[in-house]
Amino acid sequence: MKTPIEFLTEPLNSHRSLTTDCPLWPYLSYYIYHIENKLPKTSGSALETQSVIISGFATNLAARITNAANNVLITEKQIFEKSIIGREMETSSYYKLVSENKSYLTDIIKAYPELDRVLTKISQNFVEFTLQFFTHLKEDRQEINEVFNIGSDVNLSAIDVATSETHYGSRTVCTLSFNSIKIIYKPRNLKLEAEASGFLLSLSSAAGTDFCEWKIPIYLVKKEHGWSEHTPQKQAETEEEVHQYFKRAGFLLGYCTAFMAADITSDNLIAHGSSPIPIDLETIFYSTLNIETIPKEVRWNVTQTSILPNWTWKGTDGIGVDLSALGGLSEQYVSLNLYQHLEDETGHSQFGMDGVKIFPNQNVLYLNGKPAQPWDYENQIIDGLTTLFSILNNAQPSIIETIKSFRGRQNRYIPRPTATYHYAIQCSLHATLMRCTDKRTAFLENILNNDTAPAIGFLNAEVSACLDLDIPFARGQAGVLEFYEPGYSGSGHLDSKDYINGIDNSIQYIKTLEKNRIAFEEKLTSNTLLAMKNMYEHGNKLTDHSFKQHDDVRDPRYSNTDEIINKIRTSSEINACLINELLRTEISSNGLWLGFHSSPGGYMEFSELGDDFYYGLSGILYGCVVAASHSSAIDKALVTELLNHCHSRIVKKLTNKGTHLGGFHFGLSSAIVPLLIGLNYFDDERQSQLLQLYKKYVEDVLGEPWWQKYFWGSDFLSGMFGTLNVLTLLFDLTKDLSFSDLANSLYKKIETELTFISGSKLPTFDNAITTRSDALLSGLSHGIMGCAYSLFYFNKLIAKKDSIHELFLGFLSWELNEYDESIENWRDYRKRSESSAGEFAWSHGLPGNYLAISYFANNGVQPALDFLEKHPPKAAFSYSNLEKRKRPVNDSLCHGAYGILNIMKKISPESLLDPQVFLWSNIVNLSEQNSRILRTKTADPLGLWIGRVGSLLGSIGLTDRNYEFPFLPHQMEFIKP
């Protein structure tokens, strides 16, 4: 059999000419040569059909070959520029040079054996896929004509092979055009998908006029493939159609919840006028968690179908993207630092790390050219949801029998997010790995071999598929926990002790679908839509909020600070009652770890709270312990219950490797100190167990070759400098030398990650986060200042080395030099929130930086002393200075009113003698809550750094002169009962 490289020296000998800009054209020649030899000889219209098919497949293959080879080609381009021509050249010009210079192209192919293997393999796969498709089309053509109403004399006019992911040998979806009629080819069994769509249609037909005539695709099902109707995205013509669309969307939400359909994302829903069309119901009757310690409401509910907004793929700025079927309404930015092909405006290319943009998909419903906003149609969505639930209750026996009939149908399980596979594949195409199959295999194993994926025994199949650029496909059967990879001879299963199959779970769900459960699902839906509204309305820029700068600042009711403090004290009492209610009704009664929380930037979400110090359970626990020690307003019995929940969750993570350590506010590390303080407060003997488990976890992480994957970058908030803070503080609290040793070990690793920039060693941050070309950021939570603090605290307590102090001074010098006299602040270089006036909060900008600088000054650091002498806090926090700045948008500790006011108490107490400072902060308006009833339509986070608990501590800080909130780790200490 001819190999691709032979076509460099031999002509193709094809009746068709090969015109392509693909630089590795020999692999295209290989494909065309072999497919023409294997397809039957024909003429006339049959030959035209063959040509259309080959052209469509070859076009797609050319793009896949180029994408797979880009990394190697860009590397070779850089070598060529430096060693041959001594200048940069446009990528397109270099690719043209490669394709025209056969000896040079031969050298490149021979230098990268793994690249040659991969490109040969996908070219072979395309030959087999084309033959398979051709056979299926020929055999099924008569039925296709009948089912999809295509004339027998109408020829195939075009085929579009999808650019999306491939499975089991480069197979993917194809769109066929027969003049104006389009149909979809899927190279897998569609029986379950077709039956599930039919079941949805039959249920909707029984639901009333609003649900009749719902457009659902027609299917033609075959054993190993199938055909379906093409349904394009179509905007609504009237407001009535929009109402009908969202009623049906609610009905679909109920359907997917009751029948365990997962993965109904923006990729798998088409907005077609008044019809939301699910196009991929292969994940119906999905196997889900069945752990008794997790309440059944949390194991599966409406939020897990992916239809409702679900903010995922968070970067180090804590902000995710909405990939849900009802979301993704506008352009979004993924702040994860992803390895990718980058091209600038001059045509020059390179591979590097950066964020990516995600654009609205075909799931978005438009009316008059504008996206319909789901939160405006909450009533319609809830109406559709409850209509479905009503049908289930009224026809329960027959519906359960229908569910049972699905048992054994071929379905799909998704072992881990497919984006994980995409990322692993992209990274594995690095030029250094494309020289050796064994090294690339080992790399993929290292990425994919972790304890977070629930599938048991599936790793080898996952690695094999990714080696050939396929996304692993776990084919299973509805009602069983086993699955296999049809293209790569691998199998896996889920632990029957921890998981329940989708058929049994669906039956169980419907049998127990009572009034309270329906109300619970309604509440989740409403709250998720409310959070979605907050998220989208927050906008693209964190600081772009307009307030009347002088509104209320001369309110005669608050002409002295005593009146304001009394108002805050009253608000604090109401807030404590609200916290008790939330603890009692939303956490302690059923373990509901779902709630409102906000990212550091203020973007609101409704999802699992998690265990983080920032907005999760450990932070809520810490705040409640502090509040309980100052007042009887917080119910200690509820706090004890919260402590037990928090402890069990964190211990489980410590005993099952795979969770990110993160930093001081996000990740597993962030939960340790607040939990320890809580245990100590209640004189709980589990303190020792917690510390031992954490030591072991950190030791194991630091012993791994790829230890960096357990941190979100370098920063204080969620990165390695944050965990350095945790280890230093644990040594400070316990005097256990093991933590000193671990801190030293981590520091040595951190030191290797520093980069020389302008003569100084500095930590860099993700290109996905910062707008600066040198990858630096200013600020306490995400920037150099936070790293400087971590370094100083570690060196002061543990290392005590001059060399580390000099390194710290370099960090501090960079930050102090970034102070901008023109705005009297530090500029904000974050991509999402770049602001000409800079952020003004604990997390970013002057208040947080002044906290750290004051700490350094109190410890005799001369540059800090000099800076504060030149820029005294009293001036920075005077009303005349504050009135130039945007007023706080919330009352949070992180970037709101309580944070700024409590920072003033620490470093500029005289500022709090001026009532206008309080009024400027908006604290009177922001903290006023008269009753819970008035807040039913308010996104109310419970968390510490942004949320009710943090606001309570903020108010205690202003009303109790003896309490000081610990904005910096060294201030945290054990609390006396």
TrEMBL record:
SMART domains assigned: LANC_like
Residue span(s) of domain Lantibiotic biosynthesis protein dehydration: 112-473
Highest taxon in the source lineage: Bacteria
SUPFAM superfamilies reported in the protein's UniProt record: LanC-like
Any GO BP: peptide modification
One Pfam family this sequence matches: DUF4135
Name of the protein: Type 2 lantipeptide synthetase LanM
Source organism of the structure: Pseudomonas zeae
Phylogenetic classification of the source organism: Bacteria, Pseudomonadati, Pseudomonadota, Gammaproteobacteria, Pseudomonadales
Gene, per the UniProt record: lanM
